[in-house]
Amino acid sequence: MTHRFDALILGGGAAGLMCAIEAGKRQRRVAVLEHADRLGKKILISGGGRCNFTNIRCQPENFLSSNPHFAKSALARYTPADFIALVEKHRIPYHEKTLGQLFCDRSAGDILGMLEQECQSAGVSIFLNTKIRAVSRAEEFVVHTANAEFQAPALVVATGGLSITKIGATSFGYDMARQFGLKIRPPRPGLVPLVLESDDRSRYCDLSGVSAEVVASCDGQQFREKMLITHRGLSGPAILQISSYWDKPQSIKIDLAPGSDLTAIFRDPKTPRTLTTLRSELRKALAARLADRWLDYHAPASWTNAALADFEQQAHGWAITPAGTEGFEKAEVTCGGVDTDELSAKTMESRRVPGLFFIGEVVDVTGHLGGFNFQWAWASGAAAGRAL
Ligand SMILES: Cc1cc2nc3c(=O)[nH]c(=O)nc-3n(C[C@H](O)[C@H](O)[C@H](O)COP(=O)(O)OP(=O)(O)OC[C@H]3O[C@@H](n4cnc5c(N)ncnc54)[C@H](O)[C@@H]3O)c2cc1C
């Protein structure tokens, strides 16, 4: 059996659904082909089940890409306000949690339900449990599945990145790019916990669960947020953010007590220069267990001004060289992907292969933590949907 459409969208996640809605609203006959048994599984688990669906402070600077200008056009033409208008039209209650991050009050199911309803109103055809065997292109694109063939002059690849294979992530999008001769920036895990080298692990990881507000920096970027010690390394928003900029064998710097002058008290000549005094100063900035552990390994060599200055410097610039990351199984996103040089920034269409589009996470555009990855999915999906 052959199904004919104006456009085929491979992948029914955030980007694919937004693309289908925009194209459907413009009377295009579109089909979404999804291999899972339901749409938007990642949306459902996002934001701890509440979906951090956008960020009202979204700027191009919140995205990593080998071409930092690429995302600007799509982001400017589909903004957080556009998505919020959709959320409000569906009367979905939401709140700002912190730093401009918008979350559902009830559950991520509200966002998926909204997208499904919009697809229905726009006349989008959805095919679930659809395993794609091959894609070919003669005059049109032909998608071969187990039971049918789908044919259309336009094909949109919206199959996401490699993060979390157990809910359906595949390398399909990269395979498609290769098949059609498009360059790929090597995919790597982003927004991912870091694993420490064995020495650091034995020093700190029994403190698993302890957190601190830190500034984590690497590769010219820095983030002031919470860091969490895990049983294998470090996590928490500051570490997840910086992980997207980290690659072996770089090191990461952590300011454990941003803004605190830990040794200021010793400038008063009446203050005794003792470990007890230093411990109580450090405990004002850090959880007691972490403060004590830090002193176990970094107590000043003596009580001279120079030794105290050295202690201060180390606490504000803990240099660690992670052994690696927790990998795609724990990564919230995939950095790298289809090279943006291959795509039109306005429409996401391939420059080499007319009619072939790539949107969402499969493209070499990765957002910071905080709703930016969904905003890219909506914006790139809308850009392609308006061009179909
Ligand atoms: C645990 C977790 C929490 C997250 N929380 C947030 C958050 O709160 N805010 C935020 O902005 N971002 C969050 N993200 C990131 C965000 O979910 C993704 O960036 C976003 O979903 C990417 O959208 P996409 O449409 O490109 O890909 P996806 O949403 O991954 O959709 C891809 C779709 O393609 C389907 N597919 C894959 N391979 C095939 C194939 N071969 N054939 C057919 N279909 C296929 C998949 O089943 C899936 O439905 C989170 C990610 C994770 C893993």
Task: Describe the 3D structure.
The protein is an alpha+beta fold. 30% of the residues lie in helices and 24% in strands. The chain has helices at residues 14-25, 41-45, 72-77, 80-89, 109-121, 172-179, 198-204, 237-243, 275-285, 288-298, 305-316, 372-385; strands at residues 2-4, 7-10, 30-33, 52-55, 63-64, 94-96, 101-104, 125-127, 132-137, 141-145, 149-152, 154-157, 184-190, 194-195, 211-218, 221-229, 233-235, 252-255, 318-320, 324-325, 333-338, 356-358, 366-367. The strands form six sheets. Strands 19-18-15-16-17-14-20 form a seven-stranded antiparallel sheet. Strands 8-3-2-12-22 form a five-stranded parallel sheet, covered by helices on one side. Strands 1-11-10-9 form a four-stranded mixed sheet, with no helix packed on it. A hairpin with a 3-residue loop joins strand 10 and strand 11 (149-152). Helix 9 packs across helix 10 (288-298). The longest helix has 14 residues, at 372-385. The protein is elongated. The two termini are 24 Å apart. The model has no long low-confidence stretch (mean pLDDT 97). Residues 10-16, 33-36, 41-42, 45-47, 51-52, 132, 158-160, 163-164, 168, 170, 172, 332-333, 360-361, 371-374, 377 line the site of flavin-adenine dinucleotide (FAD).
- Shape descriptor: elongated
Q: Report the mean per-residue pLDDT as an integer.
A: 97
Strand content: 15-25%
Give, in spatial order, the strands making up the sheet with the most strands: 19-18-15-16-17-14-20
Helical content band: 25-40%
The low-confidence parts are none
**Span between N and C termini?**
24 Å
Q: What is the number of beta strands?
A: 23
Hetero ligands: flavin-adenine dinucleotide
Main sheet overview: 7 strands, antiparallel
Helix-and-strand structural type: alpha+beta
> With helices defined by DSSP (H or I, 4 residues minimum), what is the helix count?
12
Multimeric status of the protein? single chain
Radius of gyration computed on alpha carbons = 24 Å
